[in-house]
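3.2 Worked example (two chains)
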Amino acid sequence: MSIAHPPTLLLSLASLLTASALGLACGDKDTPTDDTGATDGGATDGGATDDTGTTPEVPVWTSVSIETSASITGVYAASATEAWISLTGGQVRLYQGASWTDLDVEVDDEDLNGIWGSGSGNGATVVAVGDAGHIAQWGAAGWDVEDLGTANFESVDGPSSTDLVAVGWGGLYSNASGDWAYQNLPNNPRFNHVWYEGEVGAAVGEEGILAIYSGGEWTVTQEEQRRNFYGVSGTGVNDIYAVGEEGVVLRWDGTSWTDISPGTGKSVWAVWAANSSNVYIVGNGGLAMVRSNGEWVDLPTGTEKNLYAVHGTGVSDVWAVGGFGVALRYQP
């Protein structure tokens, strides 16, 4: 199914549409609590003191949040003036010119769980994946939607629109052959996220699943503690990061996984390795940190809402997004 739009639509939509509040049902990522038991729905932004009477840290992020009950599940930072986000309820929104524009996808209100992109402006190619096996690609003609008839897709990544990997609880799919094709892996792992650069990649999932792609093959292992892993990112085959429940952060050095967790105890939903010296993580209760030159540094967000995705154009422009429309930018 496709929705045709004129090629010039991308730059003009922002002036024609408004980001109105949408009363959509919450997806799976709206219900998890942080490790204190607080839910997104009860979280507040700001305030003079926290419950202990101490003054909260001053936020280092700027809010560009949306008024919606939907969760933002993924973000693609296209440039310093443009970003794309996927949301529950079959939504995609475009940040351009300091405002948000609706670019909804015809997926029967199924949640979109991840987004990938290349380029910006009228040259942008964007792919969003979601529940019920939906994959939607944005180009000059608008959205083109495929329904692969499989389980939910959670994440998509790759070096180009013709070399992508999409993962979910139905396994791993690749479009390198020209069509989306299932890749048969041992024990049918349930994946939550993928990082893939063509020659190297990694995917993580439920019950401790950790998979590395190198030399044209996927090697799947399972962590002894069988913790759930929610996000993965890297800079090369010898520098990969996996994050998940209980605040776990692991680093792959090409030979083995090493625990480099910051010790917050809060579940970490996403990681983005800007480079080998700066690795950003986000998670429950507004958690945001950067591992800079081997040391973890807090990046106070000013929110207690769960953060589910992080991406940027570089260390001077990082996005973090999450529950109930929260969208933040870090521009030190």
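3.2.1 Second chain
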Amino acid sequence: MDVKDFDYELPEELIAQDPLEDRSSSRLMVLDRKTGDVEHRHFRDILDYLNPGDCLVINNTKVIPARLYGAKEDTQAKIEVLLLKRKENDVWETLVKPGKKAKPGTRIVFGDGLLVGEVIDVVEEGNRLIQFHYDGIFEEILDQLGQMPLPPYITHQLQDKNRYQTVYAKYDGSAAAPTAGLHFTKELLSAVKEKGVDIAEVTLHVGLGTFRPVKVENVLDHHMHSEFYMVSAEAAEKINHAKESGHRVISVGTTSTRTLESAADESGRLKETSGWTEIFIYPGYQFKVIDALITNFHLPQSTLVMLVSALAGREHVLDAYKLAVQEKYRFFSFGDAMLIK
């Protein structure tokens, strides 16, 4: 399976740089995965495609302001640190730029000394383990000094941190937002519940690997990054109930999808569980849990395009993306949405 099979042409001006004022006013492309037929709607119309008894699954992870700007203690050379994964208490796996200036033993000062990091090791892919020292509560200091880790294709400054956060974000831990959920407002979620649709919350802390391009020619040689997930007993019960009673499980985002498909047994049943997943979903994969997917438009040659192609078929997806370009949909994190039904 060649990575070039998942490529498409995207004019740069279609990459959304800013979120819309009203989250639910994004456009919504509805793709029938069996026929390839497409409808053009707005996101608030999602209600028309949800039925009483369906279960909508959302990822309640919260993005942390994980990008820190500091300076080397000895030379004052500028250094950027991106928090990727908490290893234990105050030790984090990080991405450091420029990496060559961050050898073990290097001390980096942030916010006039409010926070000091010491590089203690170099791990896979050149990432650094940093031990942080501070007085007070780490999360409060991070909120004060850190910036939202927007993806590299967004060049505009984000005016309101909360716009890179879903309205239902609960548990700190992500280096990137589960962007399909950015389209929901509290009012729209209330309307979903009023329609008799169950909402199940799962957690997957999104790593920056989600933006990492596939660098191997053969897709099957790609190694997925690992991400931590949790499924509560309550969420498992809601999802199992929907499946058993003949209703659909509709996943909001590729992260919710990867959580469900990682956590389920072979028959598609779920139970309370947590762990790390490196699941890589590409065409040929047999879905065990999800019946439909709400998602954004993803980067060419990315694992996310491969995941949606596994659900809807590569040709249907690429045809839909080509149409989205023609119709000037907005792409990527702050862009428009797609429902694959």
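3.3 Remarks
The radius of gyration is 20 Å.
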